[in-house]
């Protein structure tokens, strides 16, 4: 139960980050994982299905920094225009 809560909080944080970066498909993928790992579900899965879910979740957590990194947009600096005056 504790692991389900920890994974649910992590998946929720990743879903929020994906939506804030306008990566809606990945946000929906993380929300689907939240549905699997929510501690309030009443259905039980087979051990084989749990193994598959665990491996997929582990892989998604491993690649999430690559998926959800911000685009490198150059910042516009106004410092040079102030110094010219």
Unreliable runs, pLDDT <50, ≥5 residues? none
* Tally of separate helices: 4
* Straight-line distance between termini: 63 Å
* Proportion in β-strands: under 5%
How do the helices and strands follow one another from N- to C-terminus? HHHH
Helix content: 55-70%
Q: Number of DSSP strands?
A: 0
Class from secondary-structure proportions: mainly alpha
Number of domains: 1
Compute the average pLDDT.
79
- Rg over CA atoms, rounded to whole Å, is 19 Å
- Main beta sheet, described? none
Note the overall shape: elongated
In short:
The protein has 85 residues and is mainly α. It has helices spanning 2-20, 24-37, 47-67, 79-83. Helix 1 packs antiparallel against helix 2.
Descriptive account of the structure:
The protein has one domain. It is built from 4 helices and no strands. The chain has helices at residues 2-20, 24-37, 47-67, 79-83. Helix 1 (2-20) packs antiparallel against helix 2. The model has no long low-confidence stretch (mean pLDDT 79).
Show the helix and strand layout.
Layout: H1 2-20, H2 24-37, H3 47-67, H4 79-83
Helix pairs in contact: 1-2
